Amino acid sequence: MMTKQCCPLLIAEDSDEDFEVLQVLMEQMDVQNPIYRCTNGDKVLDFLYKEGDYDNLDVAPRPSVILLDLNLPGTDGRDVLEQLKQDQNFKEIPIIVFTTSSNPRDVEFCYEKGANGYLIKPIDSSELEKTVQAFVNYWLQVNTPPTSKSARAKKHA
Amino acid sequence: MNHYLEPIHFSGSIQPHGILLVLSEPELTVVCVSANIQEQFGISEDLLNQSLSTLLDVQVVDAIRQSLHLIDSASPIKLQESILVSERSFNGLVHRTENFIILELEPTLPLGLFSVPAFVRRAFTPVGCVRRTIAKLRQVSTSHEFLHLLTQEIRRITEFDRVMVYQFDQHEAGTVMAEAKRDDLPSYLGLHYPATDIPEQVRALYARGLLRFIPDLTAQSISLVAASHPLMQQPVDLSLAILRGVDSCCVEYHQNMGVAAILVIALIHNQKLWGLISCHHQTPKYLSYETREACELLGEFVSLELAKKVNSEELDYIIKLRSLQSEFVESISQVDNLKEALVNPAPRLLDLVNATGAAICLEDEITLVGVTPTIEQVSVLIQWADTQVKDALFHTDSLPKLYPEAVVFKDVASGLVLLQISKVRRYYILWFRPEVLQTVNWAGDPNASITVKEDGSITLSPRQSFEKWQETVRLTSLPWKACELDQALDLRSAIVGIVLNKADELARINQELERTNQELDSFSYAASHDLKEPLRGIHNYSMLLLKGYESVLDEVGKNRLQTLIRLTRRMESLIDVLLKFSRLGQAELHLVPTDLNQLVNQVLEDLGVSHQDIQPDIRIPRLLPTVVCDPVLINEVFMNLLSNAFKYNDKPEQWISIGYLDKEGTRDWEQHERGRIFPHSPTPSLSDSRITFYVQDNGIGIRARHLETIFRLFKRLHEQNLYGGGTGAGLTITKKIIERHGGQIWVESTVGMGSTFYFIL
User: Can you give the residue ranges of the Response regulatory domain (chain A) (predicted)?
Assistant: First the structure.
């Protein structure tokens, strides 16, 4: 099954190594979606609100899925999650938390704030591969993302 | 012998050495006269119903008439002029009763019986002597010296054989505090006598500050002859009469002591009768009015001065107690151990209320200080006293009278102060005082002053007084002073304050601890996250190398990369354990009644699946009980202990035994439901006690020197490649879980024979 080219994936990840491994894995899995990366929380918000470096529409399309690391420099991933899920414009965008933390408190917090999934980054590469594969299969292939139109319609309602 | 019923001041008789006239007012007609006026003083007129001027000069009568308004019923006033009757010179003394004026005539010079007083010979005025005495008395500081000097001075002025100062205690029993006497007489110093030795009415008269003078106890008393006057139906009140007759008991009492003349001066302190200056003489002895007046003045001075001395000594004592208290409190507030602070140094606690023994009861631990009953006796006493306490304090100076069981330890604890610091926590301090009889200081032997009558008749004597007094003070201690009881209460406030402070401190520490815990939590969280990220990088890059550069790397290189990957996995498991361990301390326990049989079976099933090579023989001698615990955590306990039992065994025939001990080492647990046993048929019900469980194996055992260290985090006894490896955290986590449940864990082992892990839940 092909992944959807039209659906941009936004990855919030501060670790270059993690991101590179992620890229390698997604390449292997033949992911066609355009991938955007933000290295801190503020940039994620700028990306979505088209502020700062991202005031150009072409540079920052509305993502269909966000893969969010929790521990981000600057604005924390938890704050980013909370803010986006409270915003009428963005709350439909699926946000999948992708983090090292297996702390039950974090898991609970994220679902409370409206996260659509919670994936733990394993250290073991084969485990990691399975996790990324599951993400790609579900969120980039099987799942139907919300359209940006429905978001706009809500906005004018 | 009962003194209390006889109204002595209405005795209707006088002593023979003077004349007493009762006069109507304002006519000054004689309505009553003492019978000796004719026999003794040779006055032949029948004075009854006559004007006073029949007997005395008109000027004298006029003088009395004009000063009628000055005559009161406080004390007799001496007329300025001496009065001549039948060529004899008299002092006239007047005072007022309810209905009459009483005029007493005392000869200015004693009659034949009496020796001439010293002052006449020495040409010193009594007032001059008194003034000099006062000057001397002002020089001394302590009340002990003061009283001693006083007796000597009074003796010098009066020349009586014996002068004593008595002091009354709160029960009106008396003690001889000071004495000056003829050398050949026995000493009465330190003697105690019961309140009954001085009749109530006499005591009341003394309390009015009056002086009592009986120059000859053996003299025949003189009756009064009254006219038929409407107001004379009642006996005349002779309370204030200097010549008042002597009660027969008083005569007998003093004669038993070989005393023929007495002079008694009241000492008043705070409007109460504090004591008496009592002068005895073995032969009849007359004192001039001036000398008596001088003694009376001296008594008033002494009363005032004594009040100052007593007050200042009391004050000194209070100040001493106060400073002791503040030192004490300061030292208590600086130590953590309340008991230690109270007990050391030992005398401090006793000095605080002037006790000879004390017991400190902190919950069920009793510590004794000084001379006390036994711990068992104190323990039972507390139970009784607890019911008597009002406002945190109970005190008695006669414990055995309230609590008969105390008779057996009356010698050490007739007096008790019980201070309740905390009823809830059972914190008490008890102070003891011995029976007073144990503390009487003898300056002289009371038996030495005794002349036992051969006829065995019961008469009063110093010894009998003393014996009677002993009866009254049996089973009592010296009384507790108000200031001492205040000290006890102040100490309580201080301790409560300190304990409260400590509680505040504890709360602060707890807050701090909570903050530290939160920090630790965020640290371990951050650590797990931040450490794992580079670890993941190392791991994944090693993988990328292995996969992408397979053709470039030789076998050694590939092996090393594999090792790198293995090490990252190991490091991850260590980080996970650390994280888990740090969370254990903070996670709330979810306590529910848990059937351990089910729990253990589940664990064994899981283990059996993972250890398929050898299946040890599992022995569970009897059904396990249901306990209240956090099943997830206790599952982990059994998982760790049983997996160790599985792993560390190299015997061909392996067995593991799981069970619990019969009730022993039972401890009460106050508030928590933890560990409470729920009756669960058919398991034995060991209600309300903790249970000691065990997991025993016949495995490799543990050396004695490692029995403690195995519980340390990451402490391993064996190489990683032996016995299935592991992080060395299982037992640490197990111990922490047990401790979170309020229990403890320990191990007994014989190398090569096996180990038994015990834990109390």
Answer: 8-136
